[in-house]
Amino acid sequence: MRAKIIAANWKMNKGYHVGLTFAQALVRALEPPTHHSAQIILLPPFIHLSTLSQTLAIQQHIHLGAQNCHQDAYGAFTGEIAAPMLRSVGAQYVLVGHSERRQLFNEDNRLLAKKVTAALPHALKPIFCCGESAETRAEGGQEAFVKQQLVESLFHLTAQQIAQVIIAYEPIWAIGTGKTATPTEVQAMHQAIRSMVTQQYGEAIGQDLPILYGGSCNAQNAHVLFSCPDVDGGLIGKASLEVASFVPIVNALNEVAA
Ligand code: 13P
Question: How many domains does the chain have?
Fold first, then answer.
């Protein structure tokens, strides 16, 4: 069975103490009363990684990741952070290609291919984000657009490497807007992504690939979205910032996966 995953993208929120207190409260709230099948990945700002890796050390089902990394392993890149550094403070995952990085920091498919390649040798699993704008969808070009993102940033990987990758489909128009994609739209894109990967790498890799949905996912819509056959969990922004709004999303995935 494919991994079921909820990833929490804190974006640029929560100072050191607030983040620590929040993570401790979250651990208490998610204490597994029974078997939890959903893996949880917290993606805080860099400043939290070292402390949270200690806080979460004994939690089998809660992991840590970063929101970005540089494509080089070290060097004179003021203000940047490299994959081996992230690994050294306990990160096991890294977001690559979030639409905010693409739009606000001019990250393109070629650069993102380098970041994916840079993360893998350090046992950092990329959570690769893809997704179209409202204009592209209005023209019906969403699948071609996402395909190009996958081809240019992921399809240089070997089969062994792509097996380490998680894909997150986040339509840009749904991020932070309260406008969630419908289950039909989400399923159609997730199925298309799975079939693109299957065509490139074969049935076994395509079937095992976790594909998460992101974009205004919340406690109200999580259950119906996670019930889609090709949706393996969520990448959550705003609703991951409070225990009360995040835990029901995790519960929704556990219910669907049970
Ligand atoms: P929201 O859940 O706030 O729409 O953000 C989604 C997102 O960008 C997660 O990476």
Answer: 1
Q: pLDDT tens-digit profile of 110-129?
A: 999 999 999 999 999 999 99
Residue 110 lies in domain: 5-257
| Mean pLDDT computed over 97-122 | 98
Tell me which of 238, 241, 242 to substitute to probe ligand 1's pocket, judged by most ligand atoms within 8 Å of the beta carbon. Answer: 238
Of the residues 48, 63, 70, 98, only one is catalytic, namely 98
Tens digits of residue pLDDT in 44-65: 999 999 999 999 887 888 999 9
pLDDT tens profile 139-156 = 999 999 999 999 999 999
If one compares 36 and 118, the residue with the highest pLDDT of the two is: 118
Q: Is the CB of 175 under 6 A from ligand 1?
A: yes
Model's pTM, two decimal places?
0.97
Q: Is there an atom of ligand 1 within 6 Å of 101 CB? A: no
What pairing do the DSSP bridges indicate for beta strands 39-43 and 166-169? Answer: unpaired
Cβ atoms 195, 159 nearer than 8 A: no
SS3 content of the chain, % helix, strand, coil (to 5): 45, 15, 40
DSSP 7-72: EEE--S---HHHHHHHHHHHHHHT--SS----EEEEE--GGGHHHHHHHTTT-TTEEEEES--BSS
| Domain CATH code at residue 90 | 3.20.20.70
Q: Is the CB of 7 under 6 A from ligand 1?
A: no
